[in-house]
Design goal:
Blueprint lengths: L14 E9 L8 H10 L6 E6 L20 E6 L5 E6 L2 E6 L10 H15 L3 E2 L1 E13 L16 H6 L4 E9 L2 E12 L3 E12 L3 E2 L2 H21 L3 H6 L4
Antiparallel strand pairs: 1-5, 1-7, 2-3, 3-4, 4-5, 6-11, 7-10, 8-9, 9-10
Length: 247
């Protein structure tokens, strides 16, 4: 079942990073020429290149370096010259990272489509065992404010824990959709005497394998994005919408 999109637009979204990814487990190592062919096809992503372990986090916002062991298979992370978009590829994984300014989901489909098609042409997987779409939203609250002013909890936190910003992490199973499910995590990322920074992380993950067909993968990402929007809107308040300047 395809969900009706939740079409709310915000002039000042708090998206610190979005990630679109897909892959397969136990893929064989790549020869160097595969990395080279992809790099030559995506020349706009050459401002910086990092080698990462295959199991390094796909989200790179705030992530520590995670180089591969000597001689181990690896993936690469390549940043564009504007410093706000990045591509990743390696055995069994391809990803597109979007950093601010975000724009809209539709803005990123052309690059993600080209990247996906190039990866599938090189890897030629019989099937894709996982897919993921991830959004990291960041909100800063004054110490005198309470998390419940921006985020919806059930059951609500006790009053004293709200005042002290005692919550360090809360994970919720938010929404199921055809082919996957959405989990939301609220994480206290930083705190000092004046302010508290929270991350609201919304992740859609596949629950079944996908064929190695770009149209199938893009269809999954479209449905996943609608489910992410629905889940996000469920856990924020009208005050959150006001601060993001709903239009």
């Amino acid at each position: 079942m395809i969900r009706r999109p939740v079409r709310r637009w915000y002039a000042e979204p708090r998206i610190a990073e979005a990630v679109f990814a897909v892959g397969t487990r136990n893929a064989p190592a790549w020869p160097d020429e595969v990395y080279g062919r992809l790099a030559s096809r995506f020349k706009g992503f050459s401002a910086r290149e990092d080698r990462l372990a295959l199991d390094a986090p796909l989200g790179r916002h705030g992530a520590v370096p995670c180089p591969p062991a000597d001689g181990a298979p690896h993936r690469v992370w390549r940043l564009n010259h504007e410093g706000h978009r990045a591509v990743q590829w390696g055995p069994g994984v391809v990803a597109f990272n979007v950093l601010p300014p975000y724009g809209h989901f539709e803005d990123h489909l052309p690059t993600w489509t080209n990247l996906l098609e190039a990866y599938l042409a090189e890897e030629r997987p019989g099937s894709l065992t996982w897919a993921e779409q991830r959004y990291v939203n960041e909100f800063t609250l004054a110490r005198v404010e309470r998390p419940a002013e921006l985020f919806v909890f059930y059951p609500p936190l006790p009053d004293d824990r709200e005042r002290r910003h005692a919550l360090t992490r809360l994970d919720l199973d938010a929404v199921e959709f055809d082919g996957g499910a959405v989990m939301i995590s609220l994480v206290r990322a930083a705190i000092d005497t004046e302010a508290v920074r929270y991350q609201l992380v919304v992740v859609a993950s596949s629950r079944r394998t996908l064929t190695g067909d770009p149209d199938v993968v893009l269809g999954w990402h479209n449905v996943a994005h609608n489910a992410i929007n629905e889940a996000f809107e469920r856990v924020i308040t009208d005050e959150t919408r006001r601060r993001m300047r709903q239009v």
